[in-house]
């Protein structure tokens, strides 16, 4: 953790170009891209240094598009090939119906995006966090402050400042909130957000199974339950369950053998008999969308801008897209020698990213609402919707249109 600075007036403190609050993968990627433009960056995170330097396995798998993988690599974040599992097809099912919707596929075409034989890769969140943290080590233009929270934002002519809980103040031309869907920095900046506590829990667990998954992701909606299977290496997969809190508590109380038996039943034997490979991980499920993405010398990225439901499987990709759009907007309107926090660049970012994420927000909310409605009319609508969606899946083309673009090469 950085040592507290002496108590001096702000006018005596060198003004940073950018302060980023949140040293998760999105914040770290943004720091690397800005540092590559010779901008000075301070990263602030409430977690202790050891937690960032050696992240725990949280059980979560991240679906990376090819564009996101390219963006990470361009920023210097290298993920070993052996840590990735390809996704070749994605299916969506309505309850116990044997016929589903193919959301995306690389089969039968001999290719995915730009000749790829997959539509993306699954990577453990722990692996991405480790690779991102390792990439910022030794980067001269990046300073890391850990174990500290931001308690207030200040302002002056041509700068904003963050006040830490040890009373230090750090001034910068631009403050970026990358501190998650319940972002405290967003609130301190006076930026409102639609925050929806779904009343559900997200359970994830890695499993072994007796039949091959064919590198296919499966998603099922059973009334209030949402189930997904994410294919990993060999005959292993990550189970993702969104459940009402009461059901989640029941699953958490099961022994490993009982959990595996119940999972085999719920997943309709799609991959045969299952056995547990690790511990069960449990998370609250909240979705959010910021009403505005910028304020005076403040910008929101990642989940602070849009926290999607996991049914989309694209939350991290959307977060990286926000990084790409912010960097492009700042460099297009300010250049690398001008004011990085100028209003014109921030307005351009807000306009382009909001235009991209609003349809995703509404489409994902509508999809979840449709598939979680247990009333008979809704079941009929789901059945009809799946039939129509086999020909044109709105969420699929929304995702492809906004996420499958290659990062701009500079």
TrEMBL record:
Protein name per UniProt:
FAD-binding domain-containing protein
Q: Which pathway does UniProt place it in?
A: Cofactor biosynthesis; ubiquinone biosynthesis
**Which biological process terms from the Gene Ontology are attached to this UniProt entry?**
ubiquinone biosynthetic process
Organism of this sequence: Chromohalobacter japonicus
- The residues covered by the FAD-binding domain are 17-340
> Membrane-spanning residues where?
none
- Protein family: Belongs to the UbiH/COQ6 family.
Write the record's keywords in alphabetical order, separated by commas: FAD, Flavoprotein, Monooxygenase, Oxidoreductase
């Amino acid at each position: 953790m950085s040592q507290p600075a002496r108590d001096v007036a702000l006018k005596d403190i060198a003004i940073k170009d950018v302060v980023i609050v949140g040293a998760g993968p999105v914040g770290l990627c943004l720091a690397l891209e800005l540092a590559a433009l010779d901008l000075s960056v301070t990263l602030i995170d409430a977690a202790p240094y050891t937690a960032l330097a050696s992240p725990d396995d949280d059980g979560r798998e991240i679906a990376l598009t090819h564009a996101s993988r390219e963006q990470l690599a361009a920023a210097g974040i290298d993920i070993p090939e052996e840590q990735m599992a390809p996704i070749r097809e994605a299916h969506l099912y309505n309850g116990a119906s044997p016929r589903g919707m193919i959301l995306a596929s690389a089969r039968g075409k001999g290719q995915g995006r730009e000749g790829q034989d997959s539509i993306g890769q699954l990577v453990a969140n722990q692996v991405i966090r480790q690779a991102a943290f390792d990439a910022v080590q030794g980067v001269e233009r990046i300073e890391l402050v850990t174990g500290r929270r931001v308690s207030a934002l200040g302002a002056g002519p041509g700068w904003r400042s963050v006040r830490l809980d040890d009373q230090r103040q750090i001034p910068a031309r631009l403050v970026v909130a990358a501190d998650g869907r319940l972002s405290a920095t967003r609130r301190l900046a006076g930026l409102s957000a639609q925050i929806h506590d779904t009343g559900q829990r997200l359970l994830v667990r890695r499993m072994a199974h007796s039949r091959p998954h064919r590198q296919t992701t499966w998603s099922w909606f059973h009334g209030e339950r949402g189930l997904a299977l994410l294919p990993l290496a060999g005959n292993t997969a990550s189970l993702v369950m969104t459940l009402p809190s009461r059901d989640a508590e029941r699953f958490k109380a099961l022994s490993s053998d009982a959990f595996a038996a119940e999972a085999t039943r719920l997943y309709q034997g799609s991959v045969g008999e299952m056995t547990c490979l690790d511990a069960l991980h449990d998370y609250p499920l909240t979705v959010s969308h910021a009403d505005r993405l910028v304020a005076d010398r403040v910008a929101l990225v990642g989940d602070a801008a849009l926290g999607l439901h996991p049914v989309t499987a694209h939350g991290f990709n959307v977060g990286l897209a926000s990084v790409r759009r912010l960097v492009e907007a700042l460099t297009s309107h300010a250049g690398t020698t001008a004011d990085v926090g100028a209003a014109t660049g921030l307005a351009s970012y807000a306009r382009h990213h909001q235009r991209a994420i609003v349809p995703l927000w509404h489409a994902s909310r509508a999809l979840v609402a449709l598939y979680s409605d247990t009333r008979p009319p809704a079941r009929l609508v789901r059945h009809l919707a799946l039939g129509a969606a086999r020909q044109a899946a709105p969420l699929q083309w929304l995702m492809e249109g906004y996420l499958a673009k290659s990062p701009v090469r500079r």
